[in-house]
Amino acid sequence: MGLFDKFKRGLAKSRDAVFGRLTGLFQGRKLDEGLYEELEEVLLLADVGFETAIWLVERVRRLARETKATDGAELPQLLQRAMEDALADNEADMKVADSGPTLYLIVGVNGVGKTTSIGKLAHRFKNEGKKVLLAAGDTFRAAAIEQLMEWGNRSGCEVIRHSQGADPAAVIFDAIAAARARGADIILCDTAGRLHNKANLMAELSKINKVVERELPGAPHEVLLVVDGTTGQNALLQAKAFLEVAKVSGMIVTKLDGTAKGGVILPIVREYHIPVKWVGLGEQMDDLEPFSASAFAQAICQPDGSSG
Ligand SMILES: Nc1nc2c(ncn2[C@@H]2O[C@H](COP(=O)(O)OP(=O)(O)OP(=O)(O)O)[C@@H](O)[C@H]2O)c(=O)[nH]1
Ligand SMILES: [Mg+2]
């Protein structure tokens, strides 16, 4: 299945929330103020957020003027272009080390899909021919280590682990040494989501960072914040808390297959200026895709089976 088809399938519920509601609106109508007002409401219901909804409607207005569009039937196409414009600056590429192993740190509150996303990334990088090591940095609960080991088995990647309660920074220290010894290309570090409060989180992340920066200059190459797409606008609140304590370089938005709130990606990128690097579109190993603005906009704004 190609990227566009995967986005279409994974974003079906979000498409219903935007395109599905739009179809009833624009049939047989002119592009006028009334229609633009209704478009704004549709966007607000799709978790696009107030500021971005206004921005998109303004963009659609301008595009309509520029293309001299007057027919309501052109609305989906115009909205698709406006969404692509909103996401134009998103940088989905992942930073890679100039030499030696590349280290990615995965952070986020509990249950958002950190460990699953690591498993999916491991599978993808392995398929690209890279040697991948997983670091079991969530030492908070024993099940977390076992869960990561299961993903290690499935993807065929070695897991560096200590026992429950161990120091996560020590696990990552060992993972860096192992990566050097084995000539690994990528280290994916899992972290605990249950650190209760900001002070604990800050303490743990700064300890990890200290070790990582000392042992592997230039690392972490990415700090990826995982957020649960089904929480819609709340994902923004989560992001805000983490942005205050971690040097977040990009985001993984998970569980988009299970929600109509995929529109939340727009304010994440446009208002918060955090690049969305990956999206989780299902529970299977190959259901994580690099974020594509054009595939996203098309999946949200075009009917099923249409290739745009
Ligand atoms: N449908 C769907 N489910 C997902 C996706 N990503 C993760 N999940 C599910 O979300 C649940 C939690 O995922 P985990 O990877 O354990 O989350 P975590 O952030 O590591 O959780 P903690 O270790 O408890 O902090 C699991 O049941 C996953 O299968 C996705 O893209 N789509
Ligand atoms: Mg986990």
Automatic annotation (TrEMBL):
Keyword Cytoplasm: yes
Domain SRP54-type proteins GTP-binding, chain residue ranges per copy: 101-302
Gene Ontology CC terms, in alphabetical order: cytoplasm; plasma membrane
EC number, UniProt record: 3.6.5.4
InterPro entries associated with the record: AAA+_ATPase, P-loop_NTPase, Signal_recog_particl_SRP54_hlx, SR_rcpt_FtsY, SRP/SRP_N, SRP54_GTPase_dom, SRP54_N_sf
EC class of the enzyme, as a word: hydrolase
Subcellular location, principal: membrane
SUPFAM superfamilies tied to this protein: Domain of the SRP/SRP receptor G-proteins, P-loop containing nucleoside triphosphate hydrolases
Residues involved in GTP binding: 108-115, 190-194, 254-257
Entry superkingdom: Bacteria
Reactions accelerated catalytically: GTP + H2O = GDP + phosphate + H(+)
Positions of the AAA+ ATPase domain: 100-280
Pfam families: SRP54, SRP54_N
Any one Gene Ontology molecular-function term assigned to this protein's record: GTPase activity
UniProt KW keywords: Cell membrane, Cytoplasm, GTP-binding, Hydrolase, Membrane, Nucleotide-binding, Receptor
Topology with respect to the bilayer: Peripheral membrane protein
GO biological process: SRP-dependent cotranslational protein targeting to membrane
Sequence ranges assigned to domain Signal recognition particle SRP54 helical bundle in this UniProt record: 7-87
Compartments reported by the entry: Cell membrane; Cytoplasm
Function: Involved in targeting and insertion of nascent membrane proteins into the cytoplasmic membrane. Acts as a receptor for the complex formed by the signal recognition particle (SRP) and the ribosome-nascent chain (RNC).
Assembly description: Part of the signal recognition particle protein translocation system, which is composed of SRP and FtsY.
PANTHER family referenced in this protein's UniProt entry, alphabetically: SIGNAL RECOGNITION PARTICLE RECEPTOR SUBUNIT ALPHA (PTHR43134)
Family assignment from sequence similarity: Belongs to the GTP-binding SRP family. FtsY subfamily.
Name under which the protein is recorded: Signal recognition particle receptor FtsY
Organism of provenance: Alicyclobacillus mengziensis
Encoding gene per record: ftsY
